[in-house]
C-alpha cells in the first residue's frame, strides 16, 4: 500500500493492517497472466469518473473481500504506462457494476478462488491507487514482494517436512528394522536436506544483495536484482516441491491421505510454481537479464 493516498490509507489500509477487513488483488484474467499486455479489463474516463469493464479470473478471496485492488488498461498501447490501479469497497459497488462470478474448484477444494466482473462500473477519481497510468510499476512491486516471500515460506515448510520425515523413518519398521536404515531412503532424505540448505543459502544471499540499490519499492530495479529475485522464486518453488514430493513418497499410504499435513504441503508446493509468475517465466526473465532478449 505504499502508493495509497491518505484517504485510502485511512479507509482501506489501516483496517486491512489491523485485520478488520480482507482484500482481493484483481490482476489475472483467463487470457492474461504473466503477460500483463494481454489484459482486456479497461477503464475509460467519463467526465471526472472512470467506467470499468472486464473480468478477472483465478482471484483469491473473490467472494468475501471487503476491499478490491484492480488493475485495468487506461492508456492502450502506452507500454509501461498502459495501466492504472483502482481501489474500492466491494460492498459499496455490489449491484452497481460489480458482480461475483463463478467459483473455481481448485486442487485445494477450499472454495476460495473464482471470478469477478465489472459492467459499466463507475468509479470516482479518488479510487485511483497511485498515479493514473502508473499501475505497471505497482504491479511489479507486488510481484517482487510475492516472490521474495517465497524464501521464508518454503524454507520453513521444507524444514518441517524434513523433521516429520525423519521422525517417520525412525519409527516405521519394515522387515524388522527402521525404514530409515535403508540406503535408498537415506539418500532421499539427504537430497531433501541439500535442497533446503542450498535454496536457503541462495535466499539469504539475495536478501542481502537487493538491499544495496535502496528500498525494494523504488523502480525500475537493476537487471541483476531482477535476476536474483526471479532466481530466488524459481529455486524455492522447485526445491520445496522436490522436498514435498519425497516426503509424501516416503510416507507412503499415509502421505496420500488428504487430511494429513504432508499431503496439504505437497498441494501447496505444486500450486506455488504457478502464481507470482510461473517457473518458466522466471527462467525467461533470468535469460533476458543475461542479455538474451532479441526483440
Description:
The chain has helices at 6-17, 90-93, 135-171, 183-209, 223-251, 261-271, 279-289, and strands at residues 23-26, 42-46, 49-60, 67-73, 83-89, 98-104, 113-124, 128-129, 173-174, 177-178. The protein has 295 residues and is α+β, with helices and mostly antiparallel strands. The protein folds into two domains: 6-133, Butyryl-CoA Dehydrogenase, subunit A, domain 2 (Beta Barrel), CATH 2.40.110.10; 136-289, Butyryl-CoA Dehydrogenase, subunit A, domain 3. A four-stranded mixed beta sheet has the order 1-4-5-8. A four-stranded antiparallel beta sheet has the order 2-3-7-6, with no helix packed on it. Strands 9-10 form a two-stranded antiparallel sheet. The protein is globular.
Compile the SSE list and pairings:
Blueprint: H1 6-17, E1 23-26, E2 42-46, E3 49-60, E4 67-73, E5 83-89, H2 90-93, E6 98-104, E7 113-124, E8 128-129, H3 135-171, E9 173-174, E10 177-178, H4 183-209, H5 223-251, H6 261-271, H7 279-289
Parallel strand pairs: 1-4
Antiparallel strand pairs: 2-3, 3-7, 4-5, 5-8, 6-7, 9-10
Helix pairs in contact: 3-4, 3-5, 4-5, 5-6, 5-7
Amino acid at each position: 500500500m505504499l502508493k495509497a493516498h491518505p484517504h485510502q490509507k485511512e479507509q482501506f489500509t489501516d483496517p486491512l493492517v489491523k485485520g478488520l477487513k480482507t482484500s482481493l488483488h484483481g490482476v489475472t484474467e483467463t487470457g492474461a497472466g504473466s503477460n500483463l499486455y494481454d489484459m482486456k479489463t479497461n477503464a475509460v474516463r467519463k467526465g471526472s469518473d472512470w467506467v470499468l469493464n472486464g473480468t478477472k479470473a483465478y482471484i483469491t478471496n473473490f467472494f468475501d473481500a471487503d476491499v478490491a485492488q484492480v488493475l485495468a488498461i487506461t492508456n492502450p498501447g502506452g507500454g509501461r504506462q498502459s495501466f492504472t490501479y483502482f481501489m474500492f469497497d466491494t460492498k459499496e459497488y455490489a449491484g452497481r457494476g460489480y458482480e461475483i462470478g463463478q467459483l473455481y474448484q481448485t486442487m485445494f477444494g477450499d472454495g476460495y478462488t473464482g471470478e469477478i466482473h465489472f459492467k459499466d462500473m463507475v468509479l470516482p477519481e479518488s479510487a485511483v491507487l497511485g498515479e493514473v497510468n502508473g499501475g505497471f510499476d505497482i504491479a511489479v512491486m507486488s510481484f517482487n514482494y510475492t516472490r521474495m516471500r517465497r524464501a521464508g515460506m518454503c524454507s520453513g515448510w521444507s524444514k518441517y517436512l524434513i523433521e516429520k520425515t525423519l521422525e517417520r523413518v525412525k519409527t516405521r519398521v519394515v522387515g524388522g528394522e527402521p525404514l530409515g536404515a535403508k540406503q535408498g531412503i537415506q539418500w532421499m532424505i539427504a537430497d531433501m536436506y541439500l535442497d533446503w540448505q542450498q535454496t536457503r543459502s541462495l535466499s539469504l544471499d539475495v536478501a542481502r544483495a537487493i538491499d544495496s540499490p535502496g528500498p525494494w519499492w523504488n523502480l525500475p530495479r537493476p537487471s541483476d536484482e531482477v535476476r536474483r529475485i526471479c532466481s530466488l522464486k524459481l529455486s524455492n518453488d522447485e526445491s520445496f516441491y522436490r522436498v514435498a514430493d519425497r516426503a509424501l513418497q516416503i510416507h507412503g499410504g499415509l502421505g496420500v491421505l488428504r487430511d494429513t499435513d504432508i499431503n496439504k504441503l505437497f498441494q501447496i508446493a505444486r500450486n506455488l510454481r504457478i502464481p507470482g509468475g510461473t517457473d518458466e517465466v522466471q527462467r525467461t526473465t533470468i535469460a533476458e537479464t543475461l542479455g538474451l532478449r532479441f526483440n
